[in-house]
Specification:
The chain has 214 residues and is α/β, with parallel strands linked by helices. The chain has ten helices and six strands.
Length: 214
């Protein structure tokens, strides 16, 4: 797996690069801030970005939002010292594939990376419980939205995204359409539901589904 490390501490980047090398993961670039992470990702197209939250010039949360919008096929996993609930929720809403703490044991860390590479959420059980509790809160449609405005195909796209099919390529394959058509449908969904990115759309669909099943 080709990995980009985004962290403003050089010593941590060195240690992480060495650790990843023990499992044959290739670190293709290192970024000192969110802005560099975006530029290097667009140029080098890594499989995964390990993103710190607190960085100068541009923080990891802002960079994650940009990358998940502009390069949805690249997986972003937050690697941070912050176990703050708000940071976790904001990161997932921003489109992060996972949220890992820097005090994680090496074996658990690599297990989480394997999950992320398969398109599964990279979350420890404790963080996953926090996230489910947050999603289980009563669904509230964003102000001024009308889900009835979604076409049948847009609802189909939203359902696939909720199931974990979020990349343009995979959505296009499942629907039998071009990636440009998928982008058009996703943009319409976000506009009609007054949402900012795919992660918010998935969260909205999950909360609504839980509220209806409850």
């Amino acid at each position: 797996m080709k990995i980009l490390i985004a962290d403003d501490h050089a010593l941590f980047r060195d240690g992480l690069r060495s650790l990843l090398g023990t499992q044959d993961h290739e670190v293709i670039a290192e970024a000192r801030n969110g802005r560099e992470a975006i530029e290097l990702t667009k140029r080098l197209k890594p499989d995964l970005v390990l993103m710190d939250l607190s960085m100068p010039e541009m923080d990891g949360l802002t960079a994650t939002r940009t990358l998940t919008a502009d390069a949805p096929d690249v997986k972003v996993v937050i690697l941070t010292a912050s176990d703050d609930d708000a940071s976790l929720f904001d990161a997932i809403k921003a489109g992060a594939q996972g949220y890992l703490l820097k005090n994680l044991e090496a074996d658990d860390f690599f297990a989480m990376l394997d999950r992320a590479s398969r398109g599964e959420p990279a979350l420890t059980p404790a963080l996953a419980r926090k996230l489910l509790q947050e999603f289980a809160k009563p669904a509230e449609a964003p102000t001024g939205t009308d889900e009835d405005e979604l076409t049948a195909r847009e609802r189909e796209v939203l359902e696939l995204m909720e199931e974990g099919v979020t990349s343009n390529r995979k959505l296009a394959k499942r629907l039998g359409v071009s990636e440009n058509t998928v982008k058009f449908h996703v943009r319409n969904i976000l506009d009609k539901l007054r949402l900012h990115n795919r992660a918010e759309a998935v969260g909205y669909a999950l909360r609504k589904k839980m509220a209806e099943s409850g």
